[in-house]
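Final report, results section. Input specification for complex C-07:
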Amino acid sequence: MTGTPTFNSKTFQGLILALQNYWSEQGCIILQPYDMEVGAGTFHWATTLRSLGSKSWNAAFVQPSRRPADGRYGENPNRLQHYFQFQVIMKPSPPDFQDLYLGSLAAIGLDAASHDIRFVEDDWESPTLGAWGLGWEVWCDGMEVSQFTYFQQVGGFDCNPISGELTYGLERLAMYVQGVDHFQQLVWNEPGTSRSKTYADIYLAAEQQFSAYNFYYADTDILLRHFADAEIECAVLVGAELPLPAYDQCIKASHIFNLLEARGMISVTERAAYIGRVRDLAKACAKAYLVAEGELVEEMA
Amino acid sequence: MSDLLLELFGEEIPASMQARAAKDLKRLVCNSCRVANLPFETAKAYVTPRRLILHISGLPMAQTDAREEIRGPKVVAPDKAIQGFLQGNGISRDQCEERELAKGVFLYAIIQHQGRPTMELLAEILPKAFADLPWPKSMRWGSGATRWIRPLHSILALFDGTVLPLTFAGINSGIQTQGHRFHAPASFDVWGFADYRDKLAAAKVIIDPDERRKTISEGARRLAREAGLTLVEDDGLLAEISGLVEWPVPMLGSFDKRFLDVPSEVLVTTMTVNQKYLSLRDAEGDLSPHFIAVANLEAQDGGYQIIAGNEYVLTARLTDAEFFWNQDKKKSLASRVPALNEVVFHAKLGHLGDKVSRMEKLVTELAGYIPGADVERAQRAAHLCKADLVSDMVYEFPELQGVMGQYYALNDGEPAEVALAIRQHYSPAGPMDDCPSEAIALCVALADKLDIIVGFWAIDEKPTGSRDPFALRRAALGIIRIIIENNLRLPLKNAFALAQDAYEFSGAPDSSLLDFFADRLKAYLREQGMRHDLIQAVFSLGGEDDLVRMISQVHALEKFLASEDGVNLLTAYRRAANILRIEEKKDGLTHNGAVHQGLLQQKQEFDLAHALGFAADQIDGALASEDFAQAMTAMAGLRPSVDSFFESVTVNTEIDGLRGNRLRLLSGIRQTLHKIADFSEIEG
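Structure output:
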């Protein structure tokens, strides 16, 4: 055995590699991102669906995430419409989950002897997923570096056993570790070499173009149609006892809803109704998943 | 006598729930000890983010033994009776004593109840208390079924210096705990409360929240003094911070002066609400570009990285705030008003845009009741008062609603009183909050609250018990305080009618609305130290909805009742009322009719009849001109004739006509006094 490889967590990719390496050493499967447009890592089936049922499950992965309404054409120092989250899910939540988490901060160079690390109450709820949990936001020197949640319910079903979920906001964490005050300045790789790229080199054009798309060009008629299509297809797939493809459609509907909202197409009253429609899909998927897993006996109508 | 020490150690308990949890744990355990006949000397609970601690001193080692004696049958009773007695009490014949009483020799069963050991009782009491602890929210973790606020890791339970064995949440109790998460994570044994407290202090954990608060407050004050600054006092924030740390270390940081161009309320909110920093003022009393962060450890590098990190975070947040401030100023408040048509006020009461239109109508009418209120300015303020809700800054910092509106209005060149009204129209937000006092602000603040209360009343969303989701009690109290503190002559019924008109509701609101206000008013006046019986006495007359007039009347009455005439007249009133009550019951009819002059016989009767007529006229006149002192004087003028009437005239004569007429004279006393207040409600 050679020693643990070290990663330069003062680069964006080094930070990801350090986290992946650390969580892999803690027994997590290192998964790849979900190939759907999602608002947060929590929407990955590896988090939502796998937190249901009785089987143990430990996984970690990067999830590119989209929040269309947060687009600022790349100008705001820390608001992006496309960003990265690092997710860890452990089921059942291990008794030393907090310590494991603190170990991950040490692995990226945040030494607890010189930094002020705190767990500050912050409960989590996702009305679109019919999910909630209790936990904290973790502060390092006054900055929120992670979200730490014990899932209690997903898709309207009680979790048993309970999963522990960690979410690291990678841009913010990297900015802090690198000591820069705008995401554009983040060093992605090999600082000081001719191969080095910044976050702006890679993603600024996308931020600018997608902001324009999200706010002006997304065709709302098409989106409304897509939403309805996804909703129908999800229901059909649930009926066919295919919860995984059904879940894709549920997530698609959720993202389209976010786009419609960014386009200012959803009034406050309609908003609740749309969220309710996506939640119904999520609940149906969760139920179908549990049935397919043999964890729930479907009542005959 | 022995001590119990208990520590429930786990993951971070939310700061806002700690004090309550400590109190509840103490209450539950102490109550169970009392029920189990386990007396104790002292009980004190402590709490830190990671531990809930209870120390009870002076517990006995066991319940006291009890001896019970039960008298049985006579020794000479049939064997069957004796056997029945022995079996019934589960004893044998030789456990009985024979005692000679007057009626013979009886058997006495002597039963010794041996007290159970405290250790054994506590092992039953404690897990039950833990399970009963009422957390506002609770959760499960891992594969367990127990609910607690956050995962629990260990339980230290010590009684009389040894482990008290118990199990909760799958955890067996022990005698170990651990210190500060980063400074002293190793486990160690504990042998008693003092040992526990001292070892934890050495392991950088202060168990007493008050002590932590003091450490923070003193440390912060020292840092401020050294920098030539003063600390902005904020007890709530201090309490919250002391619930976030086990080993508080205050540190001074700073931010760029350029952010001082952003309204200070925004800076303070960012620091205190988002970052839990204490803010500071300079010698001139202006906000200083400094803050005090309270860390949870003594950093190896002396805190350099912690301060730098906190400054970095604050700078990022203030940059956001500065951005919102500059962006928001580019759009006038007036141009934001149409966007309120998109924001729902309540599904049944329309959008905020509708509410604003109603308030514009309402202030137009209310201005007539508020001296010095310019109608156009009141309308302008009502028009703009909600527009900041759709600004970026208020979206980010909802608690700055109104405050930002004032800044933006001034920036738009709106008149200062309009801007002030926008800021103050949510006030007073509670019993301790300041009440507005400027005319335009009064109009808009009243309109906002009347619209809420009349609207929710109409859709039957009235508060019930502790449920008041739309804060209608607060709105009612706000209206009451605005009227009283500013001496506004705005009768409540008129105010309700105006709000009804603005909604285009027909008719008057449900009469329960006035009762609801009456209850809030009585509660408020009681808190102000007014006699509740006098309030009730004036209230009972019914129909009074002019709060200012009602209060003057109560004050005048209070003064009158403190005088000799008042005391005397109250006695006379009660005498008259008592006689009437008895006689009217006997007769089955009231004697409220007019006195017949022809049936008056004695001089004292003529005097009283005349005095009553005179006083009634005077009181009516005084009340009409709201001269309550004069009304009291008129009442006092009755005293000599009332006194001499009672001295010389016999009411219950045999002559029926005379008796009825005299009862009518007494009723005259009652009726005349009731012009001012229902004297039967007065106590003492």
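Chain B touches chain A through 48 residues (CB under 8 Å). Chain B has five domains: 2-62+117-202, 66-113, 209-329, 346-368+412-528, 559-681. This concludes the modelling results for the funded period.
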